[in-house]
Amino acid sequence: MMRKWVFNISAVVFSIGLISAVASSTEPKFPYEIEAAGTGEILEGNEVKGRENAILDAVSKALVEYLSEGLGEEVMREYASRIDKKIVPEAEDLMQNFLVLSEDSTGERFSVLLSVKFNEELVENLLRESGIPLDSGGDAHVYQPHTMDSSRVRLFSVVYEGNGALADSLMLERYLSENVSDVESVRISRLAESRVAFEIAFQGDLLELAGKLATGWAPFTVESAFDGENTIRIRQSVD
Length: 239
Prior knowledge:
Elements: E1 34-41, H1 47-71, H2 73-78, H3 80-87, H4 91-94, E2 95-105, E3 109-118, H5 120-129, E4 154-161, H6 165-179, E5 183-192, E6 195-202, H7 206-212, E7 222-226, E8 231-236
Parallel strand pairs: 4-8
Antiparallel strand pairs: 1-3, 2-3, 4-6, 5-6, 7-8
């Protein structure tokens, strides 16, 4: 499991492009996706760990920019300390998925450029729980879940967590590709020893798929749950 990356945002709040919230009530306040670069130090030749840290660095920076565009300069400045302590450390869990646009290793540092999508509902819930307003004085943005439509192809995430998730991921990927007729495509968007995330293009009922993923593909017991929006989470049951 990647460790969470924590850094002080007070010094960078003013260096990134802070965009005021000008979206109308029919448009999302937060951006659909954010591009961000990150770096990680390569220690003792361990490029895998250096890459993980670079990705976490980029995800954290992407979250700061995501919040800046959604909340506006006034809220970011007033609640900088609270955001730094309560929101940014949760960047990994608030992320929906990411795409690696480029990566490079110099021998001492690993660099990546990511396109990151965050789960807007999770972000807004955490902001509310942390006492951070969702607007700087205008009408508050209200999260409205998308209407489920099983007739169209949609992208969503399947996140599998548990001991040996990395080893079991091939089995799950094969099941999704070969045994679920409404799956258009499957790709791994995130890989760690105890957590693997897939991005799925699917035309069908996600609740029904969540039920299928609770049985049939693994020689052990798993739990599967749909979060109501864009993610099915699978966990290995503890007997």
